[in-house]
Amino acid sequence: MMATTHALAGMVAAGVTLVVAPEYTPVAVVAAGVGGAFPDLDLYADHRKTLHFPTYYAALAAVFVAVTILVTTQFTVGLAWFFVAAALHSRMDAFGGGLELKPWRGTSERAVYDHYQGRWLRPRRWIRYDGAPEDLALAVVLGGLCLTIYPAVIDPVIAVVVGISAIYTLLRKPMVWIVQRLVDTLPPTLLDRVPERFVEDFRS
């Protein structure tokens, strides 16, 4: 799924703060949005493995939620929601497509790596690939929920995130063609630095 979808999912989850501790809602929403997108920073460094931890993020989330209940501060609330959203992201990736540059082909059986189990979780493909129409639909629904539960001051941010999702969906497949053309022009010495999954897809 798109990083924006994950960010919105984290922000929706953080809506719980409105009920239990409304004064901490701003930090919860920001932390959840950042935590939701954070794992995808490993896009070019062993994607869905380097910064994706389905089990360990959940464990850290449980620890910091407990700490926050005992010692409620802006810092502990932020850490708790960051790890909750990062864990949600890592788990949600197993419901999407596989780990290939052209996931609409459905050839990869690697969705996200679980370090605790020491194996790759397989893709369910409920959402076929990041940037698929159903991925955008989910982002729109999550964005709508954010608009419903949060004050209007956050509306422009939600609109921008959903807008980025729409643009990414439109460009998802063309971007692969552009990157392929760029990779094809690289000399062998630089080609070795390109993530293997990119090269594999281009040669297939």
Which terms summarize this structure?
204 residues; two-stranded antiparallel ribbon; 2 strands; transmembrane helix; membrane
Q: Can you describe this structure in just a few lines?
A:
The protein is mainly alpha-helical. It has nine helices and two strands; from the N terminus they run αααααββαααα. Strands 1-2 form a two-stranded antiparallel ribbon.
Architecture overview:
The protein has 204 residues and is mainly alpha-helical. The chain has one domain (3-175). It contains nine helices and two strands, in the order H-H-H-H-H-E-E-H-H-H-H. The protein has a two-stranded antiparallel ribbon with strand order 1-2. Helix 1 (3-13) runs antiparallel to helix 3. The longest helix has 30 residues, at 155-184. The two termini are 23 Å apart. 40% of the residues are buried. The mean pLDDT is 91.
